[in-house]
Amino acid sequence: MTGQVSRRGLLGGGVAVAGVAGAFATGRATADAAPPAGGADSSRASAYDFRGVRQAGIVTPAQDRLHLASLDVVTDSREELVALLQAWTAAAERMTAGLPAGEVGPVEGSLDLPPDDTGEAIGLCASGLTITFGFGPSLFRDADGRDRFGLADRQPEALRDLPHFPADLLDPARSGGDLCIQACADDPQVAVHAVRNLVRIGFGTTSVRWSQLGFGRTSSTSTTQDTPRNLFGFKDGTANVKAEEAAALDDHVWVGEDDDAGAVWLVGGSYLVARRINMTIEVWDRQPLGDQEAFVGRTKGTGAPLSGGAEFSTPDFSMPGRGGPIIAADAHVRIVHPDQHGGARMLRRGYTFVDGTDALGGLDAGLFFLAYVRDPRTGFIPVQNAMAKHDALMEYLKTTGSALFAVPPGTGPGEFVGEALFA
Amino acid sequence: MKPLPWIAASALLVGGPALVACGVESTAPTAPGEGGDTRALSVDSSENACELSATEAPAGTISFDVTNSGSQVTEFYLLAEDGLRIVAEVENVGPSITRALVANVPAGSYVTACKPGMTGDGIRSDFTVTESDDEVAVSADEDELIQAAQDNYGAYVQDQSDQLLVKTREFVELYEAGDSDDEARALYAEARTHWERIETVAESFGDLDPRMDAREADLEPGQEWTGWHLMEKDLWPARAEAYRALTPAERASFGDDLLANTVTLDGRLQDLSFTVDQIANGSRGLLEEVATGKVTGEEEYWSRTDLWDFQANVDGARVGFDGVAPLLETKDPELATALDTRFDELQVLLDAQRTDDGFRYYDEVSPEEIKALSDAVNALSEPLSRLTAAVLA
Description:
Chain A is α+β, with helices and mostly antiparallel strands and about 425 residues long. Chain A has helices at about 80-95, 135-140, 190-200, 245-250, 280-285, 290-295, 330-335, 375-380, 380-390, 420, and strands spanning about 30, 45-50, 65-75, 130-135, 180-185, 205-215, 215, 270-280, 320, 325, 345-350, 350-355, 365-375, 395-405.
């Protein structure tokens, strides 16, 4: 390794293996494969293939950190857009393998040139990095309905701006976007490195509209993972669709062959709903424990429904309590439960965020809600409407950002991400 | 930082440590009675039994960790010797769930009861509280203090509702006249003061509140916007984009609707009575309204009259606190003193914003002043969040 310092060459231990080709012989999983059984730690591979039947970063056991960027395309040229997706595919494939973003590397190139990798990931593992791309409604048509890139007739019916929900206080600078890059990793610097380098590759073709860091996962996407806690201190997403539920994934997450005749390119993909939900942390913290549990409908300690049992016990919504059902009519667990929405479920992949403090010294913090659904019109919008109208938690929530993206299926050998859309 | 005196009085950990080193989570309750704490008892409420870890305890703050090992929701009661008067209770304990009941209990004979299924007399046993150094003083006139607090608060709500109705009628007349908008604007914040003082009660009617006090952003698609804030926007359209003023017919329709809803509200409020915990919770709730809507300038987006609402919420919270303060003095005098001080400190800051006509408009208040108000709200809200538990202790 003399003279050449590759990103992996500086690995100090753990999964460090000399030589790139064989480095991932152990612990490597394809994006579509179910994770190995075992405890929470053993469920996660050190690296995931970028290419596969599905994009990685959806059913992949949720990593600890997130950086998600939403970008606008600033060119009118379809060719430039396609070239960018090709360049992003190559860079994403490299970075998810633990390699530098560019072919030269952060310190291997000419002293007279800026490096083609920014270098902050030197010495870091792949850290389970996944990079997932999506297309927003505004990529297909601009605000005046004009076809931007000859793609308008392929815009999926369900890919429209989400409606205004009660209590939405959306910041346009945190909403929407033509493209999104979701980078998840177990090391925050690896996730940020990925977005930073992809954004750099996009300059001249794309412009970042907004981006969001998430410092802790709030969902488990595999039965091998523990359910994490959100900033309210409660376990969240207990009823999530999980990687091991193949039939449920087909029913609720993956776009089916007959879903949308005008958008066959999306078959096998999904829709990503992104919502930046601020929590009024300080006010929440002053609620008595009993009230907090009544709002959620679960105990704070174990996450068991108030109707009894353990975390994964089925809530008994009809069990009587003093003064009404023991799980209150406006309890979160009741309002959003699949039973209330014709069985609709989502694959949630949200992250906790803290973006410092606001002007009044309160935490600018909450849940960056990410959910993958087969069709937002049935899988998300009705649930969100019910929540906005009836959920006791709404008193402590303010949604400040919102976006919807169509996430194409996986990228096959030799393809670039989303190639079917342009075929 | 000096210690906060009110924490010591009521902070009692019963559920066991929730934060454990290195992510190893344990929410299992610490076994009650272990470690020689004879005031920490456990209760096993099953389908047909009610087993306490001890049948007596020394006077003082006694905790009962009630675990439901049955299949229906259960309750646990500590009753006076007559088996009728409830000394303390915990309700809604779901199957396999543990709930803590903490009560200050003087020496004497008592009856305990588990009530699986929440019906009947429950499964009863005798329970003895022995003399101890922590003897609990029982205020002989506690019932009188409770009654006085309830009566006074009920009267306050009715009085504010009466004034709200009078002022709303006046406001609607001016608004519908169409040629008196200056007078309508002058009366807007004043009339709403009476709503904001009893907001936690007034907004509790799910059919009326959305029609009377909804902000534009609260609406769902297809929902008609009515009420105060619609008229607010119509009277102060300066911040609106391409605003179309309401027609006289629309003004009449929306004005009549608000007045009719206010009449309905007034009728309902005449019959309401309030328990001390409702009064104390209302006081806390009004400060939350300040924290989430007023101090941020969101409530009166068009008129910028947020400080009127701010003061009115604080008025209502103070009345609620003052009402239960004599009771609180017998239970936790340090908390009473702390709350009194915090209310005064907040009021000083609000008074500094007064003008001849009321208050400065929100956009005239500097960011530093808003921050100071927010800090004072936080300083008051933290001890206020302990008020209900303290008056019920």
